[in-house]
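call fold(seq) -> tokens
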Amino acid sequence: MTNSADDLLEFLAKSPTPFHATATLADLLLAQGFSQLSEHDSWSLKPGRRYFCVRGQSALIAFIYGEKPLLETGIHLIGAHTDSPCLKVKPQPEKLREGYLQLGVDVYGGALLNPWFDRDLSIAGRVDYTDEKGLLKQALIDFAVPIAVIPSLAIHLDREANSGRAVNPQTQMSAIIGQSDKAQSWRETLLLQLQLQDPSAIEILDYNLSFYDVQPPSLVGLQREFVASARLDNLLSCYLGAAALVKAGSGETSLLICNDHEEIGSRTELGAQGPLLNDVLQRILPDADTRLRVLRKSMMLSVDNAHGIHPNFADKHDSNHGPRLNAGPVLKFDANQSYATNSSSAAKLRYLAKGEGGTEEIPLQSFVMRADMRCGSTIGPITAALTGVETVDLGVPTFAMHSIRELAGSKDITHLELLLSRFLASPLV
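ret:
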């Protein structure tokens, strides 16, 4: 695992859903000497060893159990999330209209809908099924090739399309998957696809499936300045957090958490409002008094993409807080604490970014929303509230956040990975 843009693109291409992203992260960690723990078992942790666990196949915690006493070092935490806004396949999605087979969609999170039209779409996710022996099984599935499209209505039939047309996902976004004179069962189609990897499968019981754009991630720009891909928010942070953890030493205790369900409020067993992080912290530090003392010495970086200043919409930013792509990671501020950054946590990160002893200074930018606009939020304030850990929100500046294809700066990949690595290697200031 490196900080190169090409390696990030490979990870993104392998991760069309949170399930696939988590499985890919797990494979990367195993290849780098991490041991997988089961939450069903008792844990016996050894200093200097590296571990990870997975919950629900879409949330992951990886950590280095440091050799130094935790009461002296605290825990270095990095947080990100595996989910992205998208279109899901409904439980009973089949539609037959005008001779076209369609699937009904359900919108996950705050998706930017217009960019989903006229894309080559595939479907991936998790399926639950029974096999020939009557056993209940789960599998990840990916059609991989384009099987669906949501065509736009021609401008000749909607002359106001360029004047601010609203999109109704219930009536205007059913995906076309083929033509037929009679209705066909989607679960039968799904079963045939599943049987390519498990011939013993006989019945689909349920599924969690997402549409995704098959256009691969790429570097664009005259100097390859930009990374263009789906799911940069927030798989970019998941990957760079894992890359930094892999390179971290064994002295300090370091932890990466990749929650699911951030885009829908985090109130699930896999989300930041759920018990996953505290469950693992209790396993690392079973004594309650010691755990509280360690957490007060700890610090977390909540890493989630920020809004870069768009040259066509510069007035959407505060004039003094318009982060530019490739100018460094962004510290995110909000007076109402939708971001967890405060002056103390920001100062500590700025101190680390400056470096010392001739080390490279990492550029940092600042973001705050216009006073007449409301910002989003992250796992940062939620995690800080549940654990009491001092937290700073930061991320790389991005264009088209929550679109089917987002844009970030390729230099910021290096900037952020270096900052995360420095954070894991430095005593908490």
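The domain at 86-213 is CATH 2.30.250.10 (Aminopeptidase i, Domain 2).
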